[in-house]
Specification:
Structural class: alpha+beta
CATH class: Mainly Beta
Strand order of the largest sheet: 1-2
CATH topology: Ribosomal Protein L24e, Chain: T
CATH architecture: Roll
Strand content: 25-35%
Number of domains: 1
Number of strands: 4
Largest sheet: 2 strands, antiparallel
Order of helices and strands: EEEEHH
CATH superfamily: Ribosomal protein L28/L24
Number of helices: 2
Length: 84
């Protein structure tokens, strides 16, 4: 299963576990993704998205339709999911 946000495009990044003895081993930092259903009153349909919690906060602030339009305007939209 993909660990990428449908809207922001956030994906896992790599870093190091650093022990007390300062030994370093590789690890991954995963984004905080949640599967969530959103209702779009503009189109009258429900959309299921896997989004990061920071994207959920922005959607709560602006609304899903306005947020998608803002991302499209910036040219950063990665959302190509079908409505469910």
């Amino acid at each position: 299963m993909s660990k990428v946000c449908d809207l922001t495009g956030k994906r896992p990044i790599t870093g190091n576990h650093v022990s007390h003895s300062n030994r370093k081993t590789k690890r991954r930092f995963y984004p905080n993704l949640q599967t969530k259903r959103f209702f779009m009153p503009e189109t009258g349909e429900w959309v299921t998205l896997k989004v990061s919690t920071s994207a959920i906060r922005t959607i709560n602030k602006l609304g899903l339709y306005a947020y998608i339009k803002k991302l499209e305007k910036k040219g950063e939209i990665v959302f190509h999911s079908e409505a469910k």
